[in-house]
Amino acid sequence: MSILRDIQAAILQENPDLGTILLKLRLLASRLGSEPLEDWVKYEAEGYPRDIEVPTYRIVSVSYTGSWSGPFGGGISNAPIPPYLIEKHAGEHWTRHRVRESIAGVQEMASKDHDLGLNSSNLILMLQGKVYEDYACNAVSGNISIFAVREIVQAVRARILELTIELEKRLPQAVEVTLQSVIEKTPESAATVTQIFNQTIHGNVTHVTATDNAHVSLAITAGDNASMVSELIKAGLSEPAAKEITEIVASEKPDNADQPLGRKALDWIKKNTPKAAGSAWKIGSAVATDLLKEAALKYYGLK
């Protein structure tokens, strides 16, 4: 049977084994020559390392409650802690948890009939004296809705199905791939698979074409510094450069979609673009400005 059709049949079952399905999809991605798709399948099957940013559908909200003791035997128990205070004193990653477990692990968590707890003991020290004045923080509990975890499973399932449907439409020869039969890989077909992958898996993706016809894809979430830094690094900027320009873009407001870069950003590009011609950046100077303009459009939600 065609590997692609086998994946489709399996994904449409009531409780599909996503771990096994991803193994089949990894083989198909290899046969089609798409490294980005292979990487995504690998991370979903094995889990996301700490140095790899997770897709947006794997970022879930965390709510917190705490208990405090005060003067004269007073106390406050199981009181909600505003997310603003958590982010202010501990960081955004505490309220927006990255689920890095393999999809098999996520499916196991999703099978529970109760919400999930998050180890929040470090927050006791971080919030000490910063929530209720003159009250000592004794305990903090983090809570992740089980529905948010189930949404991750559904997101992966839906993306796999959409991916195979688009492959069947736009690259019909993909249906011919079996364990015994291998189709000829070409740069054009690999590029098509990668484009389908970016559109179906990451959704809101911008493509920039360099002068050598290489394609750079930017999957940047509006207003999210971390995703912009991560995508610019993938596109070829050095990490310090990616962080610096992201901070500048975040500090400025665009006049319009035709010119999303502010004065500080334009000055930074003028000063730093020569680095693109050397070995500091893995990107040509001719495409650097277009790349950063597209990144700014995505960051500001203008595209």
Automatic annotation (TrEMBL):
Which Pfam families does the UniProt record give? AbiTii
List residues of the AbiTii domain: 2-185
- Origin superkingdom: Bacteria
User: What name goes with this protein?
Assistant: AbiTii domain-containing protein
Query: Organism source for this protein?
Result: Shinella pollutisoli
Phylogenetic placement of the source organism? Bacteria, Pseudomonadati, Pseudomonadota, Alphaproteobacteria, Hyphomicrobiales
